[in-house]
């Protein structure tokens, strides 16, 4: 591979198959032909990493393939009427339907404003910010109300923290960090680990509710030891996957299985690595969640036959406890459906190149935090407990303020009296004091200190 790519001809706009062979004889190939699922062929430049990515004089911008125009000498025009020409070392194909072009910031901003994906970026940013706000409110409510700190609520809290870190680092990496920087790579690692942790906590919730119905309401699945086991599983498993991916990137940075954290996006940037270290684990976890929920449904079906006998033999508290567990199961299933459908649409859009599939992915991904908040926090009972807690704190502050004011007033009076007494002693004069005699005659009473 040459440091400067050799021009090739790209004539797919005229209906012919693109020729990926070099135009000058005796030169090495610098592009490969790739074919998508519909049989459309395109040239993809085999460009070195230091040429395609590490540039300080331009900004990488993703453009749609049908938006750009490529000349016979392999120069690219960001739009058919554009006067900007990009040399072959400043652009490359990014999948079957997109082009990565390295342009100056004004050119990149203009192209981003024209391309349809600008709306997707705005929509995803707004929804992710709303999701982050909802997750912060959920964590604050959990911290304020001690009654919410039960076994199932701790699982939901860990899930909320995972999603909060994942989406927060993703938004920060996309909005504030420079692509290719060390900080961008660090945020990509954190976002990868947090996204995996969210799916592992979903798996823990499915496992916990299945154990609850299998052992009966009030079983040992809520014990502190069980929560410690869940935490070790849900936090260490993502850490091991991310550690393996990071080690591969450190040892084999040019490998197709290397995640290429932070270059050019603050995320995983190579398809095979995305499948191996994210897609495959997520798929296995979704299948496991489905199996756990099916087993739970089977347990409910078996116990339903004994409902009439149970209502006669157990107290109303046991029946209400079972109803509460079924309500928790319904919430978990809805949450699993939201998380599962989100990435089903995401992987389908990435693999097929259908632009319309990105919109359900963006909306569902942005609604994850909002769904957690609405399902577990935005309830009348929880809001009442939060209100009572805040009112109690406000009353305590007012009581302490009044107590402090009273103490300061008494201290001020004492200091004033002491100052007067000390002044009298210093001048050698006695403080006249008046006392009433039995006959009502006022007589001076001299007292020295």
UniProtKB/TrEMBL annotation:
Any matching Pfam family: 7tm_2
Gene Ontology MF terms: G protein-coupled receptor activity
The keyword NAD appears for this protein: no
Entry keywords, A to Z: Membrane, Receptor, Transmembrane, Transmembrane helix
Domain G-protein coupled receptors family 2 profile stretches: 120-380
GO CC term, one of those recorded: membrane
TM annotation in the entry: 122-144, 156-177, 183-206, 227-251, 271-295, 329-351, 357-378
Top-rank taxon, per record: Eukaryota
Ranges where the record places region Disordered: 1-33, 429-449
Cellular localization per UniProt: Membrane
Membrane topology field: Multi-pass membrane protein
Listed name of the protein: G-protein coupled receptor 2
Organism from which the protein derives: Dermacentor variabilis (American dog tick)
């Amino acid at each position: 591979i040459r440091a400067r790519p050799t021009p090739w001809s790209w004539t797919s706009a005229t209906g012919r198959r693109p020729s990926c062979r070099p135009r000058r004889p005796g030169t090495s190939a610098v592009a490969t032909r790739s074919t998508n699922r519909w049989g459309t062929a395109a040239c993809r430049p085999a460009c070195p990493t230091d040429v395609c990515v590490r540039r300080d004089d331009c900004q990488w911008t993703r453009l749609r393939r049908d938006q750009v125009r490529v000349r016979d000498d392999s120069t690219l025009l960001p739009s058919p009427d554009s006067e900007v020409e990009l040399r072959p070392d400043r652009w490359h194909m990014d999948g079957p339907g997109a082009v990565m072009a390295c342009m100056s910031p004004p050119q990149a901003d203009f192209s981003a404003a024209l391309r349809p994906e600008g709306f997707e970026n705005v929509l995803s940013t707004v929804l992710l910010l709303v999701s982050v706000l909802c997750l912060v409110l959920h964590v604050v409510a959990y911290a304020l109300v001690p009654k919410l700190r039960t076994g199932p609520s701790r699982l939901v809290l860990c899930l909320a923290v995972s999603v909060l870190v994942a989406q927060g680092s993703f938004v920060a990496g996309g909005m504030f960090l420079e692509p290719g920087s060390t900080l961008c790579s660090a945020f990509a690692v954190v976002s990868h680990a947090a996204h995996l942790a969210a799916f592992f906590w979903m798996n823990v919730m499915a496992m916990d509710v299945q154990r609850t119905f299998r052992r009966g309401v009030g079983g040992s699945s809520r014990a502190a030891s069980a929560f410690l086991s869940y935490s070790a599983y849900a936090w260490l498993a993502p850490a091991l996957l991310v550690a393996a991916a990071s080690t591969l990137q450190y040892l084999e940075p040019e490998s197709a299985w290397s995640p290429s954290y932070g270059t050019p996006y603050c995320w995983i940037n190579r398809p095979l690595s995305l499948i191996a270290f994210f897609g495959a684990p997520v798929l296995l976890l979704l299948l496991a969640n489905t199996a756990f929920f099916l087993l739970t449904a089977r347990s409910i079906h078996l116990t339903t036959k004994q409902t009439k006998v149970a209502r006669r033999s157990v107290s109303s508290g046991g029946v209400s406890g079972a109803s509460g567990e079924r309500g928790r199961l319904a919430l978990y299933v809805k949450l699993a459906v939201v998380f599962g459908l989100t990435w089903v649409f995401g992987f389908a859009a990435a693999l097929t190149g259908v632009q319309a599939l990105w919109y359900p992915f963006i909306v569902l991904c942005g609604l994850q935090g909002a769904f957690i908040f609405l399902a577990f926090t935005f309830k009348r009972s929880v809001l009442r407990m939060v209100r009572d807690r805040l009112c109690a704190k406000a009353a305590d502050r007012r009581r302490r303020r009044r107590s402090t004011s009273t103490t300061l007033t008494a201290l001020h009076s004492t200091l004033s009296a002491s100052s007067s007494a000390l002044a009298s002693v210093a001048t050698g004069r006695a403080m006249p004091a008046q006392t009433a005699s039995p006959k009502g005659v006022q007589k001076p009473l001299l007292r020295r200190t």
